[in-house]
Structures are given as C-alpha cells and as structure tokens.
Write a structure and sequence with these properties.
The protein folds into 2 domains: 193 residues, Growth Hormone, Chain: A (Up-down Bundle); 213 residues, MFS general substrate transporter like domains (Growth Hormone, Chain: A, Up-down Bundle), CATH 1.20.1250. It is built from 17 helices and no strands. The chain starts with a helix and ends with a helix. By secondary structure, it is mostly helical. Keywords: Cell membrane, Membrane, Transmembrane, Transmembrane helix, Transport.
C-alpha cells in the first residue's frame, strides 16, 4: 500500500486549512474538562450520580439556543470573529475556575463556558468552505477530523492522570491556555477567505436554490433535501451514541471488573483506527459521492452493532469496533462536506447550527431511550433494536441519493464529479 499516495490528499490545501488543523490539534489536546465532567461533579463537587446526570442533561439542552444564535452570528459577522470572541470568553471562565475551590459555582461557570463555546461551534464548520475550494472541501474536512482525533487521543489521557493526582485547578488552567493558544492562531494566521479560483461563491452551490435576500426559512423550504438529510443523520447519531452508552455497560456485564479496562481498550482502538485510516479512506473515496459513502458507513454500523448483539468474546468486540470506526470515518468526512456543498455561503452558519441541533438530538435521546429499553430487554435485544434502526437509516440515506439523482435539476452527483476532475488536474 502506497501510504504517501493516500497522504497526498492533504497536499495542496489552502495555507489557512493547515493553520486551522494545528489549531484544532492544540485545542483538542487540551480538552480536559468536558470528558471529566461527570467525575468533577460527583467526586470533586459532591453531586450524586442522579444529580450529575440531570445537571449534565440540562447543560447539554441549554446549548441548543446558543447553537442557533451562533449560526446567525456567523452569517452576519463571519466565522473568524465569532471563533475569536466566544472561544476567548469561554477560556477566560475556565481560567477563573482554575483559581476557585470545586463548588456548585464552578459547575455553573462550566455550563456558561460551554454555552459560549456552543456559540462558536457552527463557525468552525462554516469556516472551512469559506477558505477552501469546493473540489478540495472533502479533503479539508477530513484533515480537520484527523486533527480533532489526534488531539483527543492525547488530551483525555493526560487529563485522567492529572485528575487522579488531584490537580483539578491545573486542568482548568491548561484547558483554558490551549484554547487561548489555538484561538490566537486563528486570529493572527487565518485570513478567512479562499484565494483559489474555484472558491465557494455566494449562491454558487450545486443543486441548491437560493436568493441572496431570502430568509433561512425560505431557503430551507426551497431545499427540503437538507432537512431530510439532517433527519436521517439524527437516526445515524442516535445509533452511533450507543457505543458510548450500551457498550460500556455491556462489557461490565460480560467481563465483570475487567469490563472497564476492556472498554477503555476498545476506545483506544477506535482512536488509533481513526488516525491510521482517515487519510486512506479519504483517498480511496475521493471520487465517491458523499451520500453513497454515508450509505456504506451506515451499513458498516449495522454490521458492527449486530456483532455486538451476538458476541461475548474480546476479539469479536475488537473486530466490530474497527468495522464501526471505518463507518464513522466515512460518515464524518462526508456529512460536513455534503452540507457545505449544498449550502450557499450566506447560510452556512445557520444551516450548520441546524445540523448540530439534529445531531445533538440524536446524541441526547439515544441514551435516554435505550436506557428505558434496557429495563425491559437484555443487551442482545437492545443491540438488535439499534442495528435494525441503523439499517432503516442507511436505507433512507440510499433513498435520498436515489431521489437526488431523479430530480429534474442538474444532478449534484454530476457536479461533484466535475469538481473532482478539476481537483485531479490541479
């Protein structure tokens, strides 16, 4: 296998994308607080497990309006300004927590900081199309995904060590510091506009109807495929989150006290697989239409979840995790690209915020619903339900691709192939 050929998918990207990649690695490498949120609430602040769960749910739900507002702010003021302002404000609150004793006040400040970060969340996805030619957009999103996982492969491990040694205040300070560094990189080194000739121009998006003066509601009404895609992705994320909910509970039931170590190992295998295979899969699927890749990813989820249902052996768990992770890569690098390809520049912030809301709904309802299901069935039947739902979602994704090809307007797939041809000639 020619590794250099697969890594070449990241060559020729705009300079700003490489800066954003390094910024993402630094930011995620310092992501200590959110992964440890439950432990901070229970072991340091003194919440019960129920109180911690309720508090975390409320905190997640409170981010919804901030995502919506953030999307509107991005479309009005631009991605760069929103990232710099709200990432900086959020990090200052974390820095404040670093000099406080762990109390309820600290928990409240964490939530406020998370909401400030939520205001900036749509800006990161919206920035990529504004600095990347359309033909290279999938590669750019792939690099951002790789950077995020590189950082997350290191950060939580360091955070766990410092937390176990009772350095909570230092965790807040380091988290804030890495966020400030990554934000300053965006401020000083990201120009915010694509210089190449195939840049994403206003209203120049494939297969999408838009007028510069219309509202976001009018745009969505004229382009219902975006809502259909977001609803299908809600199903995808509802099923995907189960590997973080059902699987750790299942490993404890199957392997007893060793279950925690087994799940931690599976988590590490997921991260390593993402880092190793993301450039390879990006290269292999370079000319594959996004919906087709996401359909294949959904089928891989279906297979992996089915394996979880019938398995009690570690090697089968490992194989299933690798299969699931391949699906995760295909879905992640294509979903953001699909939204960007179909959305004119003036709506990118708001459409991305809407997409994050649907994604968040899947993440939030998945554990709640399947937790209730577990009171009636065992893990085997729970995974069968999830697997069947995943097959339904993948079928819907294939149907959406079929509907697009049958539409009277110019096929988005043909246009996508055209841009890939341009990219290959550059």
């Amino acid at each position: 296998m020619d590794i250099r050929r697969h890594l070449s998918v990241y060559k020729g990207l705009p300079r700003d994308i490489y800066v954003l990649f390094i910024s993402t690695v630094i930011n995620k490498m310092g992501s200590f607080i959110v992964p440890l949120m439950t432990l901070i609430l229970t072991e340091k602040i003194g919440f019960s497990k129920y109180e911690a769960g309720l508090f975390t749910t409320i905190a997640i739900l409170s981010q919804a309006p901030f995502l919506v507002v953030g999307g509107s702010l991005v479309d009005r003021f631009g991605s760069k300004r929103i990232i710099v302002i709200f990432q900086s404000l959020g990090s200052l609150l974390y820095l404040t927590c670093g000099f406080m004793k762990p109390t309820v006040a600290v928990a409240v400040l964490i939530v406020i900081a998370s909401n400030l970060y939520a205001l900036a969340t749509p800006a990161f996805n919206a920035m990529v199309p504004s600095i990347t030619p359309k033909a290279l957009m999938k590669n750019a999103y792939s690099l951002m995904y790789l950077g995020s996982n590189l950082g997350l492969a290191i950060g939580p491990m360091i955070g766990g060590i410092l937390f176990s040694k009772n350095y909570l205040n230092l965790l807040f300070i380091l988290d804030a510091t890495t966020t400030i560094i990554s934000t300053m990189m965006v401020f000083f080194f990201v120009r915010g506009k694509a210089k190449l000739s195939i840049s994403l121009a206003k209203g120049e998006t494939s297969g999408t109807k838009a007028e510069s003066s219309e509202s976001i509601f009018s745009f969505i009404v004229k382009n219902p495929v975006i809502i259909a895609f977001s609803l299908i992705m809600l199903v995808y994320y509802f099923c995907y989150v189960q590997w973080n909910f059902l699987l750790p509970l299942q490993t404890v039931e199957v392997f007893g006290k060793a279950g925690v170590s087994v799940f931690s190992s599976l988590f590490s295998i997921n991260a390593i697989t993402v880092i190793v295979l993301t450039p390879i899969l990006t290269s292999i699927t370079a000319k594959t239409y996004p919906l087709k890749s996401m359909f294949v990813g959904g089928i891989l989820y279906f297979i992996a979840f089915g394996m979880f249902a019938i398995n009690r052996y570690i090697l089968i768990f490992v194989a299933a995790i690798i299969i699931m992770t391949v699906g995760e890569i295909l879905i992640t690098i294509n979903s953001n690209n699909y939204i960007a390809q179909r959305t004119p520049k003036q709506y990118l912030g708001r459409v991305n915020s809407m997409f994050f809301l649907f994604m968040g709904a899947g993440f939030a309802t998945g554990p709640l619903v399947m937790g209730s299901v577990l009171t009636f069935v065992n893990f085997q039947y729970a995974w069968i339900i999830v697997s069947a739902l995943m097959l339904f979602g993948a079928t819907l994704m294939y149907w959406l691709k079929f509907i697009e090809k049958k539409s009277d307007k110019k096929s988005l797939e043909d246009d996508y192939d055209e841009y890939n041809e341009i990219a290959s000639n550059d």
